[in-house]
Amino acid sequence: MRRPAPPRTLTAALALCLAAGALGAACDRADTRPPHPPGGLTAQAGSATSVHVMWHSADPADGVTGYQVFQGGQLVRELPADKTMVDVTGLAPRTAYAFSVRARDAAGNRSALSSPARVTTPEAKPEDHRAPTAPPATTGRAEGPRSVRLEWAAATDDTGVTAYDVYQGGIGIHTTGSGERATTLTGLQPGTAYSFTVRARDGADNSSPDGPAVAVTTPPDPAQGPGTAPGAFTATASPRAVEITWTPPDTGRPTAEYQLYVNDRPVTVIRFGSGAIPSGRASYRLDTTEPAGTVWTLKLRARLPDGNWGAFGEERRITLAG
C-alpha cells in the first residue's frame, strides 16, 4: 500500500511556545494541571463474561492523550485518546462490577476517577453455540448535524438476547441492553453520509449476522457554512490496487490535500502539487498487497483553507480483487 508520509504536527503546548517566539522559561515550566475526569460513563453487560464500557470524549482543551479503565479500583485497560469504549472480558457470570475511567495528558498528569458505572453480568448459558438471528429491520434518521437516531426490530435466540451492538463501517461503536430497541449516536460529522448495522448477542457471546444496513446523512451545520465533504466518492477494486474518484468540495479555493481512511484508520494523505490540482473530478490509485477477498471500507476528507480537516464524504465498502 503506497502511503505518502503524513505532515508533521506539533503538540499544542509546543505550538504555543513557538508562536510566542522562543522556548524560554515559560515553556520550560512543567505542566502540572490535570485534565478533567471523563463524563458520561456507562457499562453494559454484553454477555455473561463481558461488559462494554463507554464514556464521552475529553474536551480538546485538556490535551488528553489516553485513558485508563479501572474495574473495582484495579487498572484493566489503557487506551489512546481516540478510543472512548472498550469491552472488558474474562469476567464472572452473575457478578456485580463497578468501572471507572480517568484521563491522562502528554505531561503525565492524571485526572480524578470518573463516577463509577455499575453493572451485573447475566447467568452463563453453557454449551450454547447457536447465534441469535439478525435484527430483521433497522431504521435511522438524523437528529441534527452531529447525531443520529437508530431503531431496530428484536432478534431471537434460543437462550435469550443479552445485548445489541451497533456497527458503523464494520466497526463496533455502541452497545445497548437486550430490552432496548433504539439509541442515539452523537459526536458525528455534519454533512456526512453514514451506514449503520445492528447485531444481536447472547449470554455465551455468540453474535448474530448484521441486520439490514441503514444509510443516514447528517445535515450540514449552518455555523460551518458550505458543506466541506468531498462529493460523489467512488471506490473500485482492481488486481493489487484500488482506484478512488471524487468531486472536490466547494471551499472557495482549490483543494490540494485529502486524507484517506481505510477501515476507519488513516492510511495516506493525498497531495496535489501546484498546477496539478484538479478542477473537476479527482482520482487516486492506491496500491495494495493485501489478499483478494479482503473487505475494505473507505472514506475521504479534505484539508480546508483554514488548515482544518473537513467532513468525511460518503463511505464506500469494497472487496479487494485478485
- Strand line-up across the major sheet: 4-3-6-7
Distance between the termini: 15 Å
How much of the sequence is in beta strands?
35-45%
Q: What structural class do helix, strand and pairing data support?
A: mainly beta
Helical fraction equals under 10%
Form type: globular
Uncertain stretches: 1-28
Largest sheet, in brief, is:
4 strands, antiparallel
Average per-residue pLDDT, rounded, comes to 84
Gyration radius from CA atoms, angstroms: 22 Å
Q: How many strand elements?
A: 21
Order of helices and strands: HHEEEEEEEEEEEEEEEEEEEEE
Number of helices: 2
Q: How does this model look, in words?
A:
This protein is mostly beta strands. The chain has two helices and 21 strands. The protein has helices at 12-20, 25-28; strands at residues 42-47, 50-54, 64-71, 74-80, 85-88, 96-105, 117-120, 138-144, 147-152, 161-168, 171-177, 182-185, 193-202, 214-217, 231-238, 241-247, 257-262, 265-271, 282-287, 295-302, 316-319. The longest helix has 9 residues, at 12-20. The two termini are 15 Å apart. Residues 1-28 have low confidence and may be disordered.
